Structure formats: structure tokens, C-alpha cells
């Protein structure tokens, strides 16, 4: 039997990634396009189709070899009906029947899921969590999200909203997250936007930092993960202090997850982790182990970096779409 | 075929409960004995056997109708080998082969599990969670523990230590739990021992409270759940203030569980909840709903009181023992 392929799509606020993926999770080809989110759903859907065309072209495959399409989107999703209820950072998406639109491009089953959940599935199946039976992926970017794998399968929850690990309270009555969400939740303490807030507050209060120069070079833009990494490499005391505190909170959060759910592995991904790598993962691991209640678990819990980078979501979406064909 | 029965045992620091249970979770008879924990494992195991004899006697069953024994014990358990590694509040229990000892009483398979996990199973199968597919039980007593049900089955975790929901951090750098555990964890904030600590601290600092008289009547003993309930019924401002704060933290903890895990139901049991009932569960529910991230989930998440009271553990242990026969 000829191999069957799926196209996986990671729909983000700034970019769309489409990948042609086989049943083993290998990427045959991938294409990236700017989302142009400000132009609204119709344009964005056309951009997704263009990305799929390009990926298919690069893979030198005819469309009929694609048996399923999987898409991960950042927001509230009605997976059962293939409808996007609303998206974070993509204006105008209200009850958009995206599965139906994509079936117009190619008449195959379309699976729609949360962007972070598909990334967790990607990491589980062919990334850091390969062969692991239970894991929680934590993605630390502008916000913090995650995905849970139980008995080798994604745990989607009763209302399909499981995995919002960014909104676990770690510091009751603590700060609000810049993007909303729960007061004192880990997103409010350790996301890139929380780190950005803490750094700017300290600089505004007179703390010296190489960030002041680094941001001037960039025209005072956002404190991206690569700016953070550069400041750390220059041993900037303020950046290191703020990131250490974020890592401390992430470690308490990891300990909470370990104590409550006892997964085989925690996987850390997202921009902040990709930028800082083992430097920050090691800190999270140390704090988590100090706060794990079951002393016998200390040595066996694996706390590791994600492996697939920006492709995790597209790969996971494609694999979930292929899985859905079997059921 | 004649009905098959199991004996379920809840081994506690102060009492042992043995119940004869059928496959539907009905209790035919139950017997309670003081544990006499201070006399060490050998005496305690003899007390367990006496409780089983009495329960069997009261059920008017011959021993050969019992096809399995299930036991829940408060501590670190090696379920696979039927060995108690160590127990909380029961001195001298180090690597005790309890399954082997109980098979001497009757040669049937013995299932050993964590006391809180078996109580969660009891509540799931025949208590508040009947018919629910995913739930988390939170037991608020001297400590705080829990049990997780995923896809109708207990989720035991990778190292069999899942369910330590009492050791999720809710207030980073907060107080330590009187019984040890994690700093700022929910056990350190809202368990009976944390409530006791906060009340005594306030009274020592000069706050007036009816507790002073209530405890004198009892010879200055522990602030039990029934003392708390009495103080609330007398509208004692200090007790109400301390319990409201505990309920607030429990609500943040509930929101964290809902956001991360999205279970169909949260079930609250244990002494503090039994003593205060819907008065405290309603507060937990309100705070949880205010802090749940998925607004569409607000109305559908069920936050309810446990139903089986002190029998939950024995019933759950018996049902888990019967389940184990099938596999």
C-alpha cells in the first residue's frame, strides 16, 4: 500500500506553518507564511491554503496522496464540529467553520485542535517524549500553555479544555498576567510577557541593564527570547535575577504537576525555553525536585527540553488527523 | 452463580474500618476497631483481622464467599508487591508485607493501595461521582490528599504517587504545613492542621473567640472539625474569618485543577468538609468559578460534597480488589 500523508498546520498570530507529514511523523516538506491576521479570517484561510499548496509542491506529492488535514489554532475550539469559537491574537475569528473551508481545498477529514495540545502530541510522538506513556508539556512563550498525555493519548478533558496549565495559581493574590488570565497564575509570573513587565518595571525604577542598549539597537521593540538570551550571555544581573525568579516559579509549578499527576516526564518548550535552553530548564528541574513530595520519585521524574521546535504543532496536528481516521 | 464479595479495609491512624462489600458496592456489614497504632504493625494487623472477623460474622457469610481483600493505607505503598513502605501516623511500619499477612487470614488476592485513592474510587463508583467519567476527589482533613479518575479509572501515575494534590503550591513562599510537606502548598494553607495553627496564632495574639471556651470544655484538645462547626454555628468571627481564607485557597486550588485537567467533577470530602458541609463547599465553588479560565466551562463543572463519609475508603478498597481479579 502506498504511504499515506497528512498535512499539519500550525496557525499562529504571526505565522502559519504547513507540513506534509507521514504516519511516522517524518516531515517531507514544510512551508511558512505570514498570517496577516489583521486582514481577518477569509484572508488567513487563503494564506493557509497557499501554505498547503507550497508544502505539497515542495514534497512533490499529488493532492490525492493527502488523506487528512490537521490544524492547531490558538484559542477556543469546538473540535467535534471543526469550528473556531475565538482565537487569541487573531481578530475577527468568531464561530468560523474552518474545517469546512479547508475541505474545499481538498475533500478529506479535517481535525481541529488547540495549538498547544497538538504541539504536545508532536513532542510525545516523535520529539522529547517518544516512548513515554504519560507526560505534561509546558510551553513558555508570550503566554504559558500545555498539553497532557495520559496512557499514550492526549487528555483533552471533559469540556475539551484540559491543558491550561498556565492558569494554575502559584502565588495567591499575585500579579495579573499582562494578557489577562488568572491572578498569580504561572502565566502571570513566568511567561515572556510577565518577564517583560518585570524587566521594564525594574528599569523604569532606575535599575541598570544591558537591555536598555539592546532594545535601543532594535528600536525599543519587545523583549524577545533572543534578546533575553543575549542579555544572559552578557551576564546582565537584572535579566538573570528576573529569569531566576521566573524559573523558580516554573519549578514550583512543575512540582505541583508532579505531586498531583505524577507523569513520567515534563517537557518544556516555547520561545523562552528555546532561547535559554538547558540554562533555564536546569533551574526548573532543581526547584521541582526540591519540592516534590514523594522522595522516591525525585530521581526518576524526567524534566527535559522539547525537541521539535516550531514544527511540533504542525507534526502533532498531522498525526492527530491520521489517528482520527482510524477511529 | 453465587454473589462474590470482597472485604475492604480502611486502615487509619486511630481506627480500622472493615466492610463486606458486593460487586455493586453495597455494604453488607461493617466493623470498626481502634487501631492501637502505638503497639506497632503486628498488633495492628491482628486488629485488622479481628475487624474482618467481626464484619464477616455480622454479614452472616462464610469466609469462602470472600474472593478478595482490598486495603487502603495512609502512606507510601508498593502496590505491586503488597508492601507498606511507610505510614503516616502509624509508627514502626517499614517495609511491612501486609498482603502476605492478610493472606494468612484467608488465601485470596489482596490489593493494597493508598487510603485516599481508594476513597476516591469509592466516591466515584457508588458515591458523589457515580456515572462521571473524570473526577478529582479532594479530602480535607488533618492533611489534604486526593485521587484522580480518568476515563472511569483511577490514574495512579508513573510512580504510583499521583493524587498528592495537597502538595500543589498555591502561595509561593507561604507557610509550611504543620505536618511537613511543601511550603505554600494547599495542605499548608487549608488543612485542619493549618486552620488549627492559624486559629491558635490569632488567639495567642489576643483575638477573642468562642473557641477558647469550647476548647476548655474539651480539656484544651485539638480543634476538631466538630469544634469548627460549632464555632461557625455560633457565628464566631475569628473562626469564620480563618475558614473563609482556607476556602478561598481551596477555591484557587480547585480552579488550578479545573484549568489544568478539566475534570467533569470535583468531589470534596474529609473531616473538615463533613463538619462544615455545603457552607464551605459553596465558598470553594464560588472562588473556583471566578478563577476558571474557560468561561464556557463555568456552568458545567460540578463541585460537590462527597457522599460516603467514613466508608468511602473501605468500599473503594473492596471494589478495587474485585476489579483486580478481572485483569
How would you describe what is shown here?
Two copies of one chain form a homodimer. With 327 residues, chain A is of the alpha/beta class. Chain A has two domains: 133 residues, Nucleotidyltransferase, domain 5 (2-Layer Sandwich); 178 residues, Nucleotidyltransferase, domain 5 (2-Layer Sandwich), CATH 3.30.420.40. Helices cover 40% and strands 22% of the residues of chain A. Chain A is built from eleven helices and 13 strands. Chain A has a five-stranded mixed β-sheet. In chain A, strands 11-10-9-12-13 form a five-stranded mixed β-sheet, sandwiched between helices. In chain A, strand 6 and strand 7 form a beta hairpin. The longest helix of chain A is centred in the C-terminal third of the chain and has 25 residues. Chain A is globular. At the A-B interface, strand 10 and helix 8 of A face strand 10 and helix 8 of B.
Structural descriptors:
homodimer; 327 residues; alpha/beta; Nucleotidyltransferase, domain 5; 2 domains; five-stranded mixed beta sheet; 11 helices; globular
Amino acid at each position: 500500500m502506498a504511504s499515506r500523508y497528512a498535512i499539519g498546520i500550525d496557525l499562529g498570530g504571526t505565522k502559519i506553518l504547513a507540513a506534509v507529514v507521514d504516519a511516522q511523523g517524518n516531515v517531507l516538506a514544510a512551508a511558512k507564511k505570514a498570517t496577516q491576521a489583521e486582514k481577518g479570517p477569509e484572508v488567513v484561510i487563503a494564506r493557509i491554503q497557499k501554505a498547503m499548496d507550497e508544502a505539497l509542491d515542495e514534497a512533490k506529492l499529488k493532492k490525492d496522496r493527502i488523506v487528512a488535514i490537521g490544524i492547531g489554532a490558538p484559542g477556543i475550539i469546538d473540535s467535534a464540529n471543526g469550528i473556531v469559537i475565538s482565537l487569541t491574537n487573531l481578530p475577527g475569528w468568531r464561530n468560523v467553520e474552518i474545517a469546512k473551508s479547508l475541505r474545499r481545498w481538498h475533500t478529506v477529514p479535517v481535525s481541529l485542535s488547540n495549538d498547544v495540545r497538538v504541539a504536545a502530541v508532536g513532542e510525545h510522538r516523535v520529539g522529547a517524549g517518544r516512548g513515554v506513556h504519560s507526560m505534561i508539556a509546558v510551553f513558555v512563550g508570550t503566554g504559558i500553555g500545555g498539553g497532557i498525555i495520559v496512557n499514550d493519548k492526549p487528555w483533552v478533558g471533559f469540556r475539551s479544555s484540559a491543558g491550561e496549565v498556565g492558569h494554575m495559581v502559584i502565588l495567591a493574590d499575585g500579579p495579573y498576567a499582562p494578557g489577562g488570565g488568572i491572578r498569580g497564575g504561572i502565566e502571570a509570573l513566568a511567561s515572556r510577557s510577565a518577564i517583560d513587565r518585570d524587566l521594564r518595571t525594574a528599569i523604569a525604577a532606575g535599575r541598570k541593564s544591558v537591555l536598555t542598549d539592546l532594545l535601543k539597537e532594535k528600536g525599543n521593540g519587545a523583549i524577545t527570547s533572543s534578546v533575553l538570551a543575549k542579555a544572559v550571555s552578557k551576564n546582565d544581573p537584572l535579566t538573570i535575577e528576573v529569569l531566576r525568579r521566573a524559573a523558580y516559579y516554573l519549578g514550583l509549578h512543575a512540582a505541583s504537576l508532579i505531586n498531583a499527576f505524577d507523569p513520567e516526564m515534563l517537557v518544556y518548550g516555547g520561545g523562552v525555553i528555546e532561547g535559554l535552553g538547558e540554562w533555564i530548564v536546569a533551574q526548573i528541574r532543581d526547584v521541582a525536585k526540591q519540592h516534590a513530595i514523594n522522595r522516591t520519585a525525585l530521581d526518576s521524574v524526567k524534566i527535559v527540553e522539547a525537541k521539535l521546535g516550531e514544527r511540533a504543532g504542525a507534526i502533532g496536528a498531522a498525526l492527530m488527523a491520521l489517528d482520527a481516521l482510524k477511529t
